[in-house]
Amino acid sequence: MGSSSGQSSGSYDLSFKILLIGDSGVGKSSLLVSFISSSVEDLAPTIGVDFKIKQLTVGGKRLKLTIWDTAGQERFRTLTSSYYRNAQGIILVYDVTRRETFTNLSDVWTKEVDLYSTNQDCVKMLVGNKVDKDSERDVTREEGMALAEEHGWTFLECSAKTRENVVQCFEELALKIMKVPSLLEEGSTAVKRNILKQKPEHLPASSGGCCS
Amino acid sequence: MTLVWGKPRQPPLGSEEWATFLDSEGRVMDAKAFKTRIFYGGVEHTIRREVWPFLLGYHAYDSTYAEREYLKSTKKSAYETVRQQWQSISTEQAKRFTKFRERKSLIDKDVVRTDRALPFYDGDDNPNVNILRDILLTYSFYNFDLGYCQGMSDLLSPILFVMEDESESFWCFVALMERLGPNFNRDQNGMHSQLFALSKLVELLDSPLHNYFKQNDCLNYFFCFRWVLIQFKREFEYKKTMRLWEVLWTHYLSEHLHLYVCVAILKRYRNKIIGEHMDFDTLLKFTNELSGHIDLDAILRDAEALCICAGENGAARIPPGTPPSLPIESENAFLYAQDDEVL
Question: Can you give the CATH number for the domain in which A170 is found?
Answer without folding.
Answer: 3.40.50.300
